[in-house]
Amino acid sequence: MIKNFNKVVVFMVFAVLFTVVPLKEANAAVTGIPGSYKSEINYLIHKKVIAGYPDGRFRGDEEVSRQQAATMVGRALGLNNRKRTTEFPDVDKNSYASGYIQSAKDKGIITGYPDGTFRPQNTMTRKEMAYLVSKAFNFSNMSGAYFTDVKGPGSGYRAVNKVATAGVSNGTPDGRFLPNNKITRTEYSLFLARAMNNDYRVERDLAVQEERIISSSTPLNVRIGPGTGYKVINQFKTGRTVRVHKKVGNWLQVSYGNTLGFVHANYTTSDVSSSRVVAIDAGHGGWDPGASGHGVVEKEVNLKVSKLVRDKLAASGVKVVMPRRNDTYISLSGRVDYAQRNNADTFVSIHSNSFSSENASGVETYYSAAALGPRAYKSYKLSHFIQKRLVKAMDASDRGVKEAGFHVIKRTTLPSALVELGFVTNREEAQKLGSSYWRNRAANAVSRGIIDYYNWEERR
Questions:
Q1: Can you give the pTM of this predicted structure?
Q2: How many other β-carbons are positioned within 10 Å of the β-carbon of residue 431?
Q3: If you average pLDDT over every residue of the chain, what do you get?
Q4: Which residue, of 87, 148, 350, 411, has the greatest Cβ tally within 10 A?
Q5: For residue 111, what is the enclosing H or E element?
Q6: What is the model's pLDDT at position 6?
Q7: Under 8 Å CB-to-CB from 94, ≥6 apart: which residues?
Q8: H/E run at residue 139
Q9: First to last CA, the chain
Q10: β partners of residue 234
């Protein structure tokens, strides 16, 4: 087994594997790769970590054996693959996996079962894979990532937590990890690609139920799980406003800045107020995907960046309301009405651009001068502050601040801006918009631009 503590615990949510075939076939065209994951799987093929079956197919729904898993990790880490006798009596020295299995054993990445066997033909489970990948890639950071079907605070919980914290997996939409499910080649491949390349890592989609204030008389411990038996990862000071994502008994899963963890509900209060309320509008959604190009879909980019902007602003003390918080369609007028019903004082709509020519590139920000006077001028300044930050953060050409009559910035009574992060139809910019690293940079720029605007308004 891959590390054994009674039951190996390993985590994973989306990870896939290959078939073990001679790597001379790795450059041949592989068919049957799931469309949503072609980038990750082709990355592994290019790195000569995986290959297709002899018939050229990927066969992503097939299960992954323990020897296949060890081979794939061994290739990813560049371990010695010389066939040889191993410490496991059930691993044939002539097996294609024997070298990788022994090398991984030597490095402490894997161990056997209590009876000393490795059981190479057994199918890997998702919890076993979490343990394997967390050990192989030295993931050590932990957070309050929580799955309803992974019980802690034992070693299995820690392995799953480490992989989730690293952005290698984010569980199922209903909050489960399915730790005992057998892992497929597609799942394992995704898992490994994310472990190897930060650009493929996933962001946890955590709905915000409410905001609360830390009310303890001393700094409050933040733990990785809902109970005092879980590890403390941070402390929150009295008076800090945190976002609540989940309730588990008397414990709250909360976040502030980059910290996600659990605090006891008795040491919080719901008396939250903010002098600033900005509406962050994630453009498109649901049946309206927006623009697309080079494997990037606008509605997905818009939502991911908007959520990052929300979190960064909230960490700076700015209250955020979001008309669209998931993949649903909301009408243009519905977005405007939502912002105003929720007492927003500013409105920023996040979009990604497109054009018929792939050469079009750069970032631009729009305001509406439909209502001449103070609102139009404030909208111009808001757009200017965001544009200045965004051009620098995205290392992109400056297409400028422009006036336009887009509904969401024209029909609101609030100072407003519509941001175009880059062109999904431009290969280089599409790669950026599909990358968690560049999306985070974009969110930093937009949030800091909004704060620049608020600071300017207060100085007037």
A1: 0.62
A2: 16
A3: 88
A4: 350
A5: none
A6: 37
A7: 83
A8: none
A9: 66
A10: 222
Backbone angles phi, psi at 197, to 5 degrees: -135, 115
* 17 within 8 A of 189, measured Cβ to Cβ: yes
Cα 274 → chain centroid: 28
pLDDT tens profile 326-376 = 999 999 999 999 999 999 999 999 999 999 999 999 999 999 987 567 899
3-state DSSP call for residue 189?
helix
Residue 124 DSSP symbol: P
Please give the backbone phi and psi of residue 409, each rounded to the nearest 5 degrees, phi first: -105, -10
3-state secondary structure of 453: helix
With CA atoms as reference, report the closest residue to 184 among 59, 87, 82: 59
Tokens of 426: 């431009």
Cβ count within 10 A of residue 399 = 18
Residue 141's nearest CA partner among 170, 169, 155, 161 is 161
Residue for token digits 């809902």?
226
For residue 443, give the nearest of 451, 219, 145, 111 by alpha carbon. Answer: 451
Cβ–Cβ < 8 Å for 179, 9? yes
Which pLDDT score is estimated for 379?
Answer: 96
Q: Which residue has the higher pLDDT, 162 or 16?
A: 162
CA 250 to each of CA 227, 255, 265, 266, 268: distance values in angstroms, whole numbers, following the listed order? 9, 16, 6, 8, 11
Q: State the Cα–Cα distance between residues 23 and 21, nearest whole angstrom.
A: 6
Please give the Cα distance from 183 to 169 (Å, whole number). 13
- Distance, CA of 280 to CA of 309 (rounded, Å): 8
User: Taking residues 5-20, what's their average pLDDT?
Assistant: 34
Contact 383, 346 (CB under 8 A): no
Do the beta carbons of residue 322 and residue 459 sit within 8 Å?
no
Q: Which two tokens stand for residue 360?
A: 């079009």
Residue 166 CA to residue 183 CA, distance in Å, equals: 19
Pairing of strands 346-353, 398-403: unpaired
pLDDT tens digits along 268-308: 987 655 678 999 999 999 999 999 999 999 999 999 999 99
CA distance 182 to 17: 12
Joined tokens for residue 20:
């073990």
pLDDT at 37: 82
Q: Which helix (H) or strand (E) holds 49?
A: none
Percentage helix, strand, coil for the chain under 3-state DSSP, each rounded to 5:
35, 20, 45
One-letter identity of residue 24: K
Beta strands, E only, 126-285: 210-214, 220-223, 232-236, 241-248, 251-256, 259-264, 268-269, 277-282
